[in-house]
Amino acid sequence: MSYTTSLLRWLQRKRYQYEVTFSLLTVAADSFLFLFISMIIIAASLYLPEHIVNMWNRAWFYYAGDDTAVAAAAAKPLGTETDMEGAR
User: Cα-atom radius of gyration of the chain, to the nearest Å?
Assistant: First the structure.
């Protein structure tokens, strides 16, 4: 075997080792990215609607107040004792 042939084989072997090593890393990175994006999409589709409803209800409460307190005050007749006066 001549020097050029052995050098060429050595270079081909190194190129092959490089391709094998980094092709596996690329597949692993793609798999990780796919799994990560899939988990984000699943989590968003499961929990985002409930979170939006919860935030909307809180915003509406801050804007409009509590309806049960208004209804209780409207149902109480005028001139009745308050809780503090009845406790004496």
Answer: 36
Q: Compute the distance between CA of residue 33 and CA of residue 68 in angstroms, rounded to an integer.
A: 49
H or E element at residue 1: none
Residue ranges in the chain modelled with pLDDT below 70: 1, 69-71, 73, 77-88
Dist. CA 1–CA 58, nearest whole Å: 81
- Record the pTM: 0.43
SS3 per residue for 40-84: HHHHHHHHHHHHHHHHHHHHHHHHHCCHHHHHHHHHCCCCCCCHH
- For residue 36, the model assigns a pLDDT of 92
Secondary structure (DSSP) of 6-26: HHHHHHHHHHHHHHHHHHHHH
